[in-house]
Amino acid sequence: MGEPEAGSEFANGAAAAGPMADTQYILPNDIGVSSLDCREAFRLLSPTERLYAHHLSRAAWYGGLAVLLQTSPEAPYIYALLSRLFRAQDPDQLRQHALAEGLTEEEYQAFLVYAAGVYSNMGNYKSFGDTKFVPNLPKEKLEQVILGSEAAQQHPEEVRGLWQTCGELMFSLEPRLRHLGLGKEGITTYFSGNCTMEDAKLAQDFLDSQNLSAYNTRLFKEVDGEGKPHYEVRLASVLGSEPSLDSEMTSKLKSYEFRGSPFQVTRGDYAPILQKVVEQLEKAKVYAANSHQGQMLAQYIESFTQGSIEAHKRGSRFWIQDKGPIVESYIGFIESYRDPFGSRGEFEGFVAVVNKAMSAKFERLVASAEQLLKELPWPPAFEKDKFLTPDFTSLDVLTFAGSGIPAGINIPNYDDLRQTEGFKNVSLGNVLAVAYATQREKLTFLEEDDKDLYILWKGPSFDVQVGLHELLGHGSGKLFVQDEKGAFNFDQETVINPETGEQIQSWYRSGETWDSKFSTIASSYEECRAESVGLYLCLHPEVLEIFGFEGADAEDVIYVNWLNMVRAGLLALEFYTPEASNWRQAHMQARFVILRVLLEAGEGLVTITPTTGSDGRPDARVRLDRSKIRSVGKPALERFLRRLQVLKSTGDVAGGRALYEGYAAVTDAPPECFLTLRDTVLLRKESRKLIVQPNTRLEDSDVQLLEYEASAAGLIRSFSERFPEDGPELEEILTQLATADARFWKGPSEAPSGQA
Description:
Shape: globular
Distance between the termini: 27 Å
Strand content: 5-15%
Subcellular location: Cytoplasm
GO molecular function: aminopeptidase activity; dipeptidyl-peptidase activity; metalloexopeptidase activity; zinc ion binding
Radius of gyration: 25 Å
Helix content: 40-55%
Largest sheet: 6 strands, mixed
Binding site for Zn(2+): 469, 474, 527
């Protein structure tokens, strides 16, 4: 589970040009761009560690390209087009040509920002919020630049062909294309364009019946002449349908009949991309520091070759056992935030170096974890039988490939491993350092006298929150399970539900997981539970002592942590779509729910007041009464957290949905009038920063670190130099893979019939 920062992505966007609705779908020219600093961390690596990190980074960057195919039908073509343009002319050279074609400096900068956004998000939809973004310049002008570019002179047919394929879709904001979603709600390439939520549910039930994970799958539906649907479940793997040595997967690759519908399980999705991932993992294996790392990589190779999530689980088991490595990494189909159904994983890979000083604080938190778990507001029977002491390190990221970079991670996401083998927590220190930089004049919705305190303590309070959220939030709580032999992991006679006073009535059956059972709300509900644990436990003096805070400083850290959460709850409204009544970002929905819980606590703990800003436009102020955090806030959070955990432990989907969706509902009911407040939030929002990452390059047997300036042009250069050996081949692969499946999304304006 990845943890983006609460509230770092916004500030006063009042200067944004154009009508309010449009600014949702563009990245502004003055968007913040920061470089990830890992020079010192890299310098401290030995030559062997550098080679290990280099090949793992290559594997991650190659695999990250699969995200283009997991996002939108046009994303692979847009990537290929941009890559061709900037390989032939760097951003400065292309600028001369663009200005000569009649573009203004602003229009050319808008194009650079768009290109940097596509690279950063691995597609043309924001990784945080799932909203489409389009170039902020006239389409005709961009067409002139592209068709008159050096790339077009060298390869006229290819460049024109790419533009004809993706130009319209690059700019289109017709309603269904504005957001990622399923059926009429939006666009996704995890499912063919004619799939509905009903198809997704049926497919999940089919997968559960065959004990297959959805993590590395996509679903394609074709309707025959009689109107009968046929489903293809396609697994990601290097191997396709060719006969191979018998593996655990080959017996699964066949036709099935399930509830009257034919299902075919196939494999070979993203095959040529995963082939490159596997080649680099083989090279990394030579430089592994120990047998755990070697066995872990062997299992990842097996997983990506065969399409086996079981092999990835085995690799994750070795990964958990590899305690305290110098070079830390994880790779695969991991987070399910962007699947509209909530069970398919997006490809990501990261490579990072341990920051020893900060890690020492986290290790002290781990040492206190068993005692702190007892402070959580649910009975001991609802906690894991044994706390499996995890690794908790602060890392400086060298490479994070995928659609976005989180601030902290708690993985693996496999429930069975988490309950019995354990997990690892990481806080990404150099990502947090970039995210902290908050300018006073860009701090929205706070009282003037809160701003200086907020700027001073936001960084330290977020370190505490990430630590608690990952370790004791995601790391806590037990799922009640009945295994395939009928045995229970809890005592049915003695365990009592504290909410009802009765024995346990529901649980998880064999093959059911948290994600498969709670599907569309699973990610956000779990983030809400972890965020709530962070707020609840940061009130504990021992926690703040571990991080070095006592007395007045400790009180300020608590205040700013709670203030940051309620502010984030208001900012979250940007990620709610009123037309579809749905949330587009799991963490932000979670923060809004917490805001609602604290508002409901009453007694003036939290107030939101509409105001008029100094620019004469609507504004708002969030206030938190720090004298009531313990007396009013803590008991409210305690009741809420207990309900969240009990419903999760017992697999009570109906109760969980009623509770969570009740708090997550956005209405214009007084006193808050959230729909009206949403307009104010949109008026004053700031886009999330783009982050420029370095490259590693092998020269003889020496690994060099290549760094780039913090600008849209610098970010583009980092991608232009990312694949020096095989850039054109990769673009060819991406467009061929996209073209092979293009028929599944033909006629993007035709939403499927039936329930969306």
